[in-house]
Amino acid sequence: MENDTYKTILKPSKEVLHKDKNSKFYSYTFPVTTEEDVKSYLEVVKQQHPKAGHFCYAYQLGKEPDQQVYRANDDGEPSNSAGLPIYGQIQSFEVTNILIVVVRYFGGVKLGVGGLINAYRTGAQLALEASTIVERTINIDYLITCDYDVINKVMRVIKEKNLNITDQKLELDCQIWISVRKKEAANIFSMFDSIFKVTIKKTES
């Protein structure tokens, strides 16, 4: 059975501080679904830390593994010493639709590439541990359209299968939007498709 769940966070984490050889690393997690969300949260963090030297981050978007996109940014630190260690924690905690930002204030002592990798990885880990991680289902959204004389049949299936109605318009004809777990979607589609005078089509969520 294919997996139709994913893990993400409910809300931004509280600020977490990690210190290493006088350098300070402030870490945050944010729930994001678009690159616009990423940009706006980065701006928020930069406003909070106007004197910081580096704003390193990684994010991953997308619920399904074959559709996920990620980006890791070192923001001036040595190549692959910040963004990828942060992204590694996203993979380790198996979360998506998430942005992790680690802000560094240089403390006068160089950490070296190994030290930086460890510091950024630790910062990301602490922020994730301070986050509320939840499991969500991957859903398929459908629009059901039917005449009034078959609405009872449609509603009976919805009730029997305990389906989630997200919207409905009962005007000249009946339009009902439902959200169905991915692994049940094909079965639900065929049930409605087999009812006379009922059409069902997939919609974009």
Strand content: 35-45%
What does the radius of gyration come to?
23 Å
- Element order: H for helix, E for strand: EEEHEEHEHEEHEEHE
What structural class should be given to the helix and strand makeup?
A: alpha+beta
Give the biggest sheet. 5 strands, antiparallel
Structural domain tally: 2
If helices are DSSP runs of H or I spanning 4 or more residues, what is the number of helices?
A: 5
CATH class wording of the largest domain: Alpha Beta
- Average pLDDT value? 94
Low-confidence stretches: none
Tell me the number of strands: 11
Shape: elongated
User: What's the CATH superfamily of the largest domain, by name?
Assistant: Impact, N-terminal domain
Roughly how many Å apart are the termini? Answer: 23 Å
Classify the fold: give the CATH topology of the largest domain: Ribosomal Protein S5, domain 2
CATH architecture of the largest domain: 2-Layer Sandwich
**Approximate helicity band:** 25-40%
Enumerate the strands of the largest sheet in spatial order, edge to edge or round the barrel. Answer: 2-3-6-4-5
